[in-house]
Design brief:
This protein is an all-alpha fold. It has helices at about 1-5, 10-20, 30-45, 50-60, 65-80, 85-100, 105-115, 140-160, 165-180, 180-185, 190-195, 205-210. It contains 12 helices and no strands. The chain starts with a helix and ends in a 6-residue tail after the last helix.
Length: about 220
């Protein structure tokens, strides 16, 4: 992950690392080590399907997930879409639904955006019985997105989104609307109103623009 942040591309080093990872016992790695390692490799666009399948097969056996790890794994699959793992996507989606109150703005927006990019909302149909409780006429995928957007709205009401967080939220909403226009349009009025409000100019910015500037 450090190499990815520093944009270090040492092909000899990565080749030796891949040989090691192909045979090492992944059970000896802690979960956060696995998620950081595979996410870093994906950021560097390194590794083939066998390597990623090996990681994903091990991860799907793990428990005690945290929101940031879920977001990293989903972002790994978004970056390497040819190497996604259906069982792991289901596990990540189930974790989000069972532990949504643990998700802060960053892991929430990142994870939901990745689910949309992976076209993973169809997996809502195969969630455990009782986990998804839709209202009359509401599809599981629309219910899940309503839940995610309401969580984001609640976080925003507690602490207003920062400019960067607002940009990420806008990107999420834009991706949802363009890719699932009918579902988006059928969301409750309050949810759509919140989505539209993300594009409003924040009051602090408006006040700053309206404030007369002194001439120097």
């Amino acid at each position: 992950n450090a190499c990815a942040k520093l944009k270090i591309h040492n092909h000899r080093l990565f080749s030796e690392m891949q040989k090691c990872l192909a045979v090492v016992d992944l059970r000896t790695f802690k979960l956060f080590e696995l998620t950081m390692l595979v996410h870093g490799l994906a950021k560097l666009r390194y590794g083939g399907p066998d390597l990623y399948d090996r990681f994903f097969d091990e991860m799907v056996l793990r428990d005690k997930w945290e929101s940031q790890a879920v977001a990293q794994v989903l972002d790994t699959m978004r970056r390497k879409q040819l190497h996604s793992h259906d069982a792991l996507i289901r596990l990540m989606l189930e974790h989000m639904l069972r532990n949504l109150d643990q998700y802060t703005v960053h892991p929430l927006t990142q994870a939901v955006y990745c689910l949309l990019e992976l076209e993973a909302l169809d997996f809502t149909e195969s969630m455990p019985p009782g986990l998804i409780v839709t209202e009359e006429g509401e599809t599981p995928s629309r219910w899940v997105m309503r839940l995610f957007l309401e969580r984001l709205r609640n976080l925003h009401e507690l602490v207003p989104l920062t400019p960067i967080q607002r940009l990420h939220a806008q990107h999420l909403v834009r991706t949802y609307r363009y890719g699932n226009e009918i579902d988006y349009n059928m969301q409750p009025h309050a949810v759509k109103a919140f989505c539209r409000s993300l594009y409003d100019v924040p009051a602090s910015v408006a006040a700053s623009l309206a404030r007369p500037h002194r001439r120097r």
